[in-house]
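REQUEST ID: PR-0412
SUBMITTED BY: lab tech R.K.
PRIORITY: routine
TASK: structure prediction, single protein chain
INPUT:
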Amino acid sequence: MTIGLRSAVFACSLALCPAAANATIIQVANPAGMTQGLYSIENFEDSLFVPGVTFSAPSGVRQLSAWAASSSSTSSGLYGLSTNNFPEPLTMTFAVPTSSVGMYFGNDDRCCAEPFTAYLDIFGTAGSLGTISVVANMNDFADQFIGFTSDEVINRVSIRYGSGSNVGLYHFVDDVRFNTASVPEPSTLFLFGLGLLSLAAVRRQQSLLR
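STATUS: complete
OUTPUT:
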């Protein structure tokens, strides 16, 4: 390997390797901020889930009426999704990796819990990528949105109230949306950048030898 090529590889590793290890998660305030291509939306108005996502909880999941969970107030329709027992986090696993996920949450009822924070834990192929959060407004409506976009593909997310076991409420979500267009893995971007720098180094070396 020439000195120029070795220098290019070293520079590339310094510039791009951190990108392979650190995903950029951008929290968005509402669905308008979710701008990464086309999205699928599950509104839980029937017993069939949209293709591409599986919902799970330790005790299982169930369709639940907004009347029972959120004072009949939800982002759309008459139903959302909850767990069979409480308190339990609710997990969404994607058949094809996504890069943007969001949902409304509720059942934040002062009858049974102190004010809490809802967290969305985000996972990729290498494990945890980060967590975003929203402070519950405690109005018992499913009217708060939690969502994000990412520069790395996502395999799974889990929503939890507080620690997931210290808030005495059923988790309740509605209008879960996720995009169907994935982004390149950081490792792919790294290899692409390495190739470009290597090519530039070879051309520079050739020009010096002329």
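NOTES: The first strand starts at residue 25 and ends at 28.
REVIEWED BY: pending
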